[in-house]
Design brief:
The complex is a heterodimer of chains A (about 160) and B (about 100). With about 160 residues, chain A is mostly helical. In chain A, about 75% of the residues lie in helices and about 0% in strands. In chain A, helix 2 runs antiparallel to helix 3. Chain B has a single domain, classed as Helix Hairpins, CATH 1.10.287.3510. In chain B, helix 1 runs antiparallel to helix 2 and helix 2 runs antiparallel to helix 3. The chains are: A mainly alpha (about 160), B mainly alpha (about 100). The interface between A and B is large, with 86 and 74 residues.
């Protein structure tokens, strides 16, 4: 019962904050609602018994990505101009609603093979085993390290003064 | 009625469509980047939900969500760097005015 109440509260906060990101005219307020949305998603991960992911979500999304976005907003001074809608507003709304309808129909109509096994707790040692253990994801981990290095170098080169 | 896989998948679909609407309808490049982050988070939610309800002992969905987060961080860094460098050259980040590559 408590889990259901938590899920509904977090889901409402999450969708409301995401709507605020899209609909608010002030870019800075949109970035702050994005932080609220990310925190609610961290709560959703907790209800899915993914504690490690919730912590990483707060660290990376709220701690790093949101700060980067706020920094970029301050560096570009677009706050005065706000965040206007383009000419594609109505077609975009139609596409988004169609997309939501199709996905919801597919989700409801599919008979999912839901397992009744209780989830693994705590997940951190098991995740470490999956990532670094035998037959795990060690090659993707190495590739992702190269990707992050390339992204850092690319970002430095792009913003460097000529 | 208890919370099942469907609830999480529909929440994820709603978040994804909100992000899609923002990415298509907005003109400010930073707001478009924020909408893309919302879409990535929505995909992560559905992967963690599948991992929790379909294969609770394998954790593959959570590993995928970790990789999605890393790629999102790299994408945000490079995307914001591109936006800042465009702003330096053209004094705007309105995507209707950024037409360098228009043919």
């Amino acid at each position: 019962m408590a889990l259901e109440a938590t899920f509904w509260i977090l889901a409402v906060i999450c969708v409301g904050a995401a709507l605020a990101v899209v609909l608010l005219g002030n870019v800075f307020r949109a970035a702050l609602s994005l932080i609220v949305c990310f925190l609610a998603v961290a709560g959703i991960y907790v209800t899915l018994s993914a504690g490690f992911l919730a912590a990483v979500q707060v660290l990376i999304y709220v701690g790093a990505i949101a700060i980067l976005i706020i920094l970029a907003i301050m560096l570009t001074r677009e706050v005065q101009r706000g965040s206007p809608f383009g000419g594609l507003r109505v077609p975009a709304l139609i596409v988004a609603i169609l997309c939501l309808g199709v996905i919801s129909y597919a989700v409801v109509a599919t008979p999912w093979q839901v397992s009744s096994v209780p989830p693994l707790e705590p997940t951190t040692p098991a995740l470490a085993g999956r990532l670094f253990g035998e037959g795990g994801f060690i090659l993707p981990v190495e590739i992702v390290a190269v990707l992050v290095l390339a992204a850092i170098l690319g970002a430095i080169i792009l913003v460097r003064e000529k | 009625m208890s919370i099942g896989l469907d609830h999480y998948l529909i929440l994820s679909a709603a978040l994804f469509c909100i992000g899609l609407y923002g990415a298509l309808a907005k003109r400010n490049a930073i707001v478009i980047l924020m909408s893309i982050e919302i879409m990535l988070v929505a995909a992560s939610i559905s992967m963690v939900a599948f991992s929790r309800f379909v294969v609770p002992l394998l954790l593959t969905g959570q590993v995928f969500a970790i990789f999605v987060m890393i790629v999102a961080a790299a994408e945000a860094a490079v995307g914001l760097a591109i936006i800042i460098s465009i702003y330096r050259n053209r004094e705007t980040i309105d995507i209707t005015k950024i037409d360098l590559m228009k043919w």
